[in-house]
Amino acid sequence: MSSSLTLDVHASVRTLPSGWDTVVSNSPLGSVFARTEWLRAIERGTDLTPRHVVVLRDGTPIGLCPNFVSEIALPIPVPSAVAPRELVSIEPGFGGPILTGEYGATLDRLLEGVRTAATGGVWGHRIRTLSPAAVQYADLLDARGYVPSVLTCQLLVDLTRPIDAVFDAWSKERRRTARKARDAGMTVAQVEPSATEREAFYDAYAAMIDRVDGVRYPPAFFEALHETMGERIVLFRADIDDDPVGWHFYVRDEERGSLHHFFSGLREEHFGHHPSSRLHEAAMEWASDAGFGTYNFGESNAAVTDGGFRYKSQYGGDVLPVVTWERGIARGRWAVYRAARRLYRTAGARAARQTDATSRTTGGDQP
């Protein structure tokens, strides 16, 4: 009965109960990003602070919610000592509650743990869900003060079809660029992630992220991923005349039967060779042969005006929302922050529309 439910908050993956990964594997909402290997890599390789919540019944986990404390992104720099913080489930990756039964009572206990974990200037709690099936918790979360939004999405390609049908669904332009890369002698292969290979990939990844002013994860995070995830990490490299021209970094999400494209290492000077189209082509074929049901292009802005979204859409995938749920913990400060963020996003969207109307899209390859 619900009276036997107990609650634990864990400041490290090392103390999580042994049944954590079993709950993740057996749940239709489970994914590789909720597994202890991924959580351990974040703990080892970033400065994010773990605050994982577990509900147990008679000592057996029946509900869990992985979380990390991180600084809230602001449009202006703020000293770390005074920066507002939030509890995120989770980023990098995706999280949210996973419940196996007694849903209302278990979720109440999980959220009680979230409030307990929200120390040290934490203003709010943010949940990022990977599976659209997470909407089954919508009424429960809404009743407990969580507000949904959809700002990003993922594009999934169905690999249960014959591979020729998969490629036939690509746009004419993507088929052309992949063919052009093949005709130029570009080869793509899965490579062993040796220390030299990891360093070469990271250099290209860092250059690409810095070019677009994105969030660049430190080398320690990638080293931790290789150490903790093992064969769940798949690295593909594109070469022309034995010279590397691009990498794609994948995560094998066995829980969801999906090969998940998570990072790219592409230098601007190689875009004209179209390594991205060729890498996607080779990885889709490999994933199909390996028995994966879907190929996930990773997270994109949920905006048809966004160049990255438009590019990925050319590969024939289905668009699925990444639903985010937020709730204030420091209510007054959270309300002020949300109002200011809404104004900032409105101004940013207006500026983006103006830029899009006056700029000309170039024809180079993208991630």
Automatic annotation (TrEMBL):
GO molecular function, one term: transferase activity
SUPFAM superfamilies the record matches: Acyl-CoA N-acyltransferases (Nat)
Record keywords, A-Z: Transferase
Domain BioF2-like acetyltransferase per the UniProt entry, residue ranges: 174-312
Keyword ATP-binding carried by entry: no
Protein name in the entry: Peptidoglycan interpeptide bridge formation enzyme, contains acetyltransferase domain of GNAT superfamily
UniProt KW Transferase keyword: yes
